[in-house]
Fold each of these.
Amino acid sequence: MPAKKIPPPKPLSPRDGDLLVLVGTMKGLFLLRSDRGRRKFQLSGPYFPGSSVYAAAFDSRAGRRRIWAAPSSMHWGAELCWSDDFGKTWSQPETPRVRFPESSGATLKNIWQISPGRADDADTIFCGVEPSALFESGDAGESWSLNDGLWNHPHRAKWMPGGGGLCLHTVLVDPKRPGRMVVATSTGGAYRTDDGGRSWNVKNRGVRAEFLPDPHPEFGQCVHKIAQNATNPDRLFLQNHWGLYRSDDGGDSWNDVANGVPSDFGFCVGIHPRDPDTAFVLPLHSDGFRCTPDGKLRVYRTKNGGKSWQAMTRGLPQKGALETVVRDAMSVDSLDPAGVYFGTRSGRVYASRDEGRSWKLAAEGLPPIVCVKAAVVANARSKARRAKAARSRRKAA
Amino acid sequence: MAVRFLIPGPLQPFSGGLRSVAVDGSPATVREALDALGARHPGVRDRVITEVGEIRPHVNLFVGEENVRDARGLDTAVPADGEIAILPAVSGG
């Protein structure tokens, strides 16, 4: 019997100031929209049904309203697509543009991270991929090149794949220092460039690697995720494969801040957009079990830079909730108060509109969630509609 | 007489909607036929083979009824009027 065609999703029509949550799953991309109140969410999807979407991003620089997504087909490979109308239509280049040069001998397995560059460098965008490598575009995604500095790093040959593969999953562009960027790979750890990607220095001092004979190697750590504060980019929080850390110096050193969490194993970490002392994690029992401890779904929040963490449970199931939240499935918005969002392997999206104090189920019944990205919508109207509205206003005046 | 590719549904957006594409020249092998296909429809070729020129792990190419993986891979010979079917493997999860 031939498969029934999956109907195209009913697109969303966000307005400026609305909140958009991009939800990447193992079977496609979903979009959630809410107004600034963030009490109710409208769901649209799946886009790219059948493809996993490990990376997505919203780019509002230079008047754009572009959703980037990286669908990966088990059959046909991974690629980078975009929509300028909130999912109504998608651009899919004839040939995938993020490609390893043939001379590298490597084949793109997946795109794990899409990171728009600095606000004042509006055409620069980065992708972290598997096998671990960084790609960069200086022309808003028209063309891409492999970052040779990282690809040729002498450590790379000794990086080992973790359970998710050998992936470069974190790309943090410093909003204040041109040329500085932190990336993280599993396994390998954190690396930083201060010269625009020409050279990379390992930044794992203080981070454990319990699965190696030497638990404090120079590199080889299985960093799961790093979050960076936008106002103080030297303040980083790192969720490790065993270990929860804070850095106050852009990754030069890391201090253990697992003070009061039920486990220092976990995948995701989020940080407040303004307060560098406020961060969010979702601890899991262990690397053997990888589910929430005691069947309780708890986000832990610190408001003092990790000196202590408190369980945020209101609205989250506290019985029989053996959930898993993976490395890129938590996001914090830039509104005030900040909203926090996470998605589970069981296909539920939870949202907090009050910095973690209380939670609501924003969506359920989705495929396993691997990516959650929250963004405040800008440039919701197309350029043509903005121009027409401006003409109408002038006429009325 | 021409070598012809059968294009699966997911790749037809990259073949101009065509289910079947005859390629130019007289390709003797699957590799040469893919090169000829790529000249007209690079989007199909690049979704069938990787950057290093290997057949993607979950894609099968059949010349007639023979899976080229069981023959000589991309060097499998193609008859002058041969048909190459591009088929997604049974995989998913």
Note: The mean pLDDT of chain A is 96.
Amino acid sequence: MDKILVGLKRVVDYNVRVRVRSDGSGVETDGVKMSINPFDEIALEEALRIRDRGEASEVIVVSIGSSDAQQQLRTGLAMGADRAILVESAESVDSLTVARVFLSLIERETADLVLLGKQAIDGDNSQTGQMLAALWGRPQATFASKLDIDGSTATVTREIDSGLEIVEVDLPAVVTVDLRMNEPRYVKLPDIMKAKKKPLDTLALDELNIERAAAIREVRFEPPSEREKGVIVDDVASLVTALKDKGLL
Amino acid sequence: MSKVLIVAEHADGKANPSTAKCVACAAGIPEAEIHVVVLSDNSDAVANEIATLSSVSKVIRVDRPENENQLAAVLAPQVAALAKGYTHVFGPSTTFGRDLMPRIAALLGVNQISDIMEVLGSHSFKRPVYAGNAIATVEAPSDLIVVATVRAASYHAVPSDAGAPVESVDTAADIPVHSRFIELQAGSSDRPDLQTAAIVVSGGRALGSAENFDLIYRLADTLGAGVGASRAAVDAGYVPNELQVGQTGKIIAPELYIAIGISGAIQHLTGIKDAGTIVAINKDGEAPIFEVADIGLVGDLFAIVPELQEAVS
């Protein structure tokens, strides 16, 4: 296999307690820590392991978004990716257009495998990989926890509601990864220094001549409704009484 | 008027309960005519079961041997071919629907809405983002077909008190052969299904081992409850992945949820927000699970759980 493309989305860090802005226009991002979407980091780790086993020659990390996403791409390069491509867009880009961007990059790079996170933890959509596979006319293996490459096919274990599903897909294919696929490596300081010299190409989204899809418009944000404050009971007997009072036992 | 096509999820000749919840969601669209499509290698029993669902005016059967294993790449072109003439195509936001619906949307050239939790109008919906820490009101383009997944935990299944006609159709769709099902590894269990059980007992990392997780199973069996787990308990190998509750596991809405030895990470709380009553048992009184619990008991689970089991048996 030649090239693996990996998507890295810049998102609000996993540990940040997200708050809705008081005017309902979005969530607070000023001064908030931003990171690589954790599922995407796992996708990159898997791509690096495949390359380091000699089953692929190059790992290219791709981000679509503002110029700030260079930080996440540099982190990806420090983890071990060979080069990076930023497709720059000032405003947010909808899933279908993102899938079209990936397809255009696949055609430029002739990639054999695209590894993406199963969802981004900001919009929680879980769409891009499936949409890309559809547009590309290629297999999708979503929610993957294990990936084995065997020449022109891949065997993938998928975490689904009923258990673990094992599928075999022909390459090229799109695989979206779940949490238990691997544990991403920590970046060491010398790697960060080395990453500064690796190529990071920037393209404007408009340069790619992609038709922008009609977006689902997010018109308003609100905080979730809060549950009423509960009670603390002292012992099992009181717990059982409380549950009986509610008619639950 | 809106015309909604729902893609049924089913297995072993039975409809998944998420299908009746998708119908409930679609019924919230003003003046909606609701059809359900069952794609299967033999949809006889499932189609007849779904035909009894209230609000459904037609069940469409598509029987092909290739549909046996419900692969998204196989099903999507068939649904896309059937979608013409509909204003909406809905599926559940289970792993089945989340795998399939975006593929259908892309074939139809539209974006997709994930996890509808409330219908505000034919093209206006609410959905959770940021692990449920914000609720977004979204609007789909009014001149395009709406493809969406429905957050099952936000809806009650419609009753089975009707009798819609069942129609068999052929789709001319080309079926790809690049994806092959090998096997499903599923733990067999006589316990109630986690996603539909009225009571769910869940265990976390504090259980400490797969052996100790028996405490959870025993309490669940005494209560006739389903069993769940936190991500930490699954990662530690105490239980299989299909028991995970939360942002990356199952989103559930039981009447009673008992969280035992679960600290309550945001990603876990996302999965239980719609539970009727949440009980938390944890030795750390400061654990975030107590912020959402209706009833909390602070103490050692290894003493409390056997005592609780005895008290309710």
Note: Residues 215 and 306 of chain B are 7 Å apart (CA to CA).
Amino acid sequence: MAVTTAAIAIALPLAWLTARTDLPGRRLWTVAAALPLVIPSYIGAYAILSALGPAGLAQDLLEPLGVRRLPSIAGFAGAWLTLTLFTYPFVLLPVRAALRRLDPQLEEAALGMGRSRTEVFRTVVLPHLVPAIGAGALLVVLYVLSDFGAVSIMRFESFTTAIYTLYRASFDRVGAASLATVLTALMLVVLWLESRSRRRGALYRSAPGTARRAQTVPLRGWRWPALAFCATISALALALPIGVLAYWSLQSVSGDVPWGEIAAATGHSLLVSGLAALLAALCSIPIAVLAVRFRSPFSAAVERLSYTGHALPGIVVALALVFFGTRVAAGLYQTLAMLVFAFVVLFLPLAVGVTRASLLQVSPRIEEAARSLGRGPFEVLRTVTAPLISSGTVAGAALVFLTAVKELPATLILAPIGFETLATEIWKATSVGFFERGAVPSLVLLAISALPLYLLTARD
Amino acid sequence: MSSISCQNLRKSFGEVRAVDGFSLRVEQGATVALLGPSGCGKTTTLRLIAGFERPDAGTIVVGDQTLAGADVFVPPEKRRIGVVFQDYALFPHYDVAGNVAYGLGRGADRNRVREVLDLVGLGAVGERSVNELSGGQQQRVALARALAPAPDLILLDEPFSNLDASLRAKVRSEVREILDAQGVTSIFVTHDQEEALSVADTVAVVNAGRVEQVGTPEEVYSRPANRWVAGFLGEIEVLPGVARGGTVTCDLGAISGDWDLAGEVDVLVRPESLAVDITAPPDRPAVQALVLSRNFYGHDQLIELRLPSGQTVRARRLGFPAWHPGDRVRVWIDGPADVLARDA
């Protein structure tokens, strides 16, 4: 909850600043603000801990100034900081997209009625952003509940660490399973609450006539505070981990770097995540269409079901698929197909959430017009609905790719033998304490994640 | 280009009966207005005809094909019915020509696209994005798109309501000309009586999900079937009277017509059918009246009068001569009047 609130608090102003104002270097900040998404929480947590924690890099810098010992940031504070910094883009991206699609006439109408900009934002803009904020917040909550890397590094006891400890240390499968069940139940409660609060209302562009771009808001005196805000967030969420990684990389380059292995792992990561993104995007369209256009208990259930994948920690889904693979579909066990399927199960909600949000902004009249022009429902889906929501679907695919490329437990458990990805390379290195060896694959991981992220943010 | 017949259509949404026994027959090539207040079910009726909603009961027949009935439901894409939406619902991802070509299917005939765009006067903007067009141009694209596949019937939902008032009258007559030129049967929905009366050749007045009256614009305006229709179509004065053998006597004197009524009746007369002057022509049964007030509108004036019986009526005359409160005048019926039995 604390993470979600903080994530929204960071994401809303960032979205507005990058979408609607004359912030200097807006394009740069747009990309920078979304980039933390690609940093796996385990890398981020480690970087923050080693930089800001006791005996970290910051302390080294401050020691000459007489600071003997920084307070420990492990525990709740560290977990909270890490998770907030690396999950706020989940809220930022949908909110920013919604802001850009919002009909400027609505705001102008409200301004014309003598409301101040702040009031207009609160009474007109904000309600229109609620579906996007809700979709983003849901992802944050689910991510935080199922996160393992950050909380374990920050030594903050949570459900996932408890499950892991039980399972690994004492092979207490019953205990692990019952805790996993409680965790799953908790996540289902979150989903239920979210669905209750979701407004039925669909938000379309209000009027025909020429669509216009919203005016940019001049920041004037607020330029520098706004810049400082963006810079601080980016410094903590981006520059810090990359700096730490670069530092380790430099240390490791002096030694021998297994370039061949890294290249193979990169190829594997691209292949698996790419396939997962493609499949998830394709699946998200019918699910979103069912959920938005044909409201029924069945369609609602299908949509809910697609979210449960994300509500389950990666390790739970992976173990379930191992069971399925060994008992039911032996031919699939430890195949690429199984791994891709696990990713789709895990990350489909990312794609569905974004696709659904963009579909809500397509008027059903447009589809009806297409039907009356002699095209059947599937033809209309292909020629009208799909192109109109394609920006959302592409964004969803990019999100899936970004998340899949860093997914660790499912890859570890389900990947075919000898099939290393960047994530497993990093894990192999860090789990035995060779942070230097993990640094280069980490940087490669960040680099290949930046491309879809660039697509995601720079398209418009 | 077919006739269309709706029989006893019904459609409910939950507890709300949107369409409740709607019957209408439209002849081939006619332009029909469904006129009614908002919430009267006229748009739902249009959506039933288009096939976007499935009727709970009733039949829809176009030409000799049943589109909706007891066990029949033809999906919208098989109906050959064009629709122009209130918000136009253009495809934002296609240019103007792309929108028009959409209904022609793959390998659309460029000449047909060109022809239809020329028809609506948009031949020059085929390459433009629909978002760059003005509201009036978007409306014509929507019309061209609906006309391109040469549908049997074209439906227009409040087609002029999003246009500026100054543009509306011009666009209305243009649309009517285009529809006539194509000879296409059309039904349009409107809540604006002036629009219905001026564009349609048949007006169906709709209230509470059913048709109250069908007729030519002149018929529904001057011979309304009941008080509700009379009141909805414009200002009306209701005067009590007594009918005997084709003649009706009321506060404005005796009028005669082909009414088959006897006993207590109401005489319905529109303000513009009341003439006012110092003296009446000798062959007119005029009565004395006192001018109570006068509102001047430029082109015309509305004069409130008190009759000897104490009843007040309004007369709408051209803007001159100017009458003043206190003037004593003669008033008589100079135009169509309608007579309804008291309980109709």
Note: Chain A touches chain B at residues 207-211, 363, 365-366, 368-377, 379-380, 383-384, 387-388 (CB under 8 Å).
